[in-house]
Amino acid sequence: MKTCLPLLLSVVTLATAACAEDKKPAAPDKTMTESKVTLSEEEWKKRLTEEQFRVARTAGTERPNGAEYEKFNKQGDGTYYCVCCGVELFTSNEKFHSGCGWPSFYDQSKATNVKETRDPDGQRVEVTCKRCDAHLGHVFEGEGFKTPTNRRFCINGVALNHVPKGGPAPKLLELGTAAVDKKKEEVAKEAGVEVKK
After folding, report:
1. Catalytic residue among 82, 84, 85, 154, which?
2. Cβ–Cβ contacts within 10 Å for residue 57, how many?
3. Which residue stretches of 112-174 are H helix?
4. Has 154 been annotated as catalytic?
């Protein structure tokens, strides 16, 4: 039995090494924002309500303490997605009540799909969706909230799509646009290839 133990250990070591070499790289995170979603103004207007378009596509602001804020306060555990493109932005883990009249989060979710850009006047930092550039709101620092980051992402509720915990994530908006699809059809036609619709 003593002579079998070193042999058994060698086999296990070789098998472990072989499995380690065969490991494929991890699948990319579905929330990665490698490609931008770009739609025309007309396409966005077809997909969004008037208020969603005004806030998310023209950097508007919903009124404080409105219906969206009341709805936000009643939402339980879950994940918040971009209303425009469906990418994950925040979770209920980062949600807190700031009393400002708009949905508040102390940080973005692990998906890190929120972009921060200082306004031209240097007074505020705008937050947008990295994937589709939807205007979400602004982030403020050092206001004294007892949160892990001492930051407040002040977000327009109309820019968010809440999915309760355990619910299915919304389908990500496809990257193509009508203009891109039309160009593909033109190129295919010139090449003599039939485009299936």
Report:
1. 154
2. 20
3. none
4. yes
53-60 contact pairs (CB < 8 A, 24+) = 55/135, 55/156, 55/158, 55/159, 56/83, 56/84, 56/134, 56/135, 56/136, 56/156, 56/158, 56/159, 57/84, 57/134, 57/135, 58/135, 59/126, 59/135, 60/135, 60/156
Phi, then psi, of 151 in degrees rounded to 5 = -125, 155
Extract the runs of DSSP E, i.e. beta strands, from 49-193: 78-82, 88-91, 104-105, 114-118, 125-129, 135-141, 151-155, 160-164
Q: Which amino acid is at 68?
A: E
For the chain, the domains span 41-168
pLDDT tens for the chain, residues 1 to 197: 444 444 333 433 333 333 333 333 333 344 444 578 999 999 999 999 999 999 999 999 999 999 999 999 999 999 999 999 999 999 999 999 999 999 999 999 998 999 999 988 889 999 999 999 999 999 999 999 999 999 999 999 999 999 999 999 998 888 655 555 555 566 566 666 665 55
In CATH, 41-168 is 2.40.440.10: no
The pair of three-digit structure tokens given for residue 74, joined into one six-digit string: 């009643």
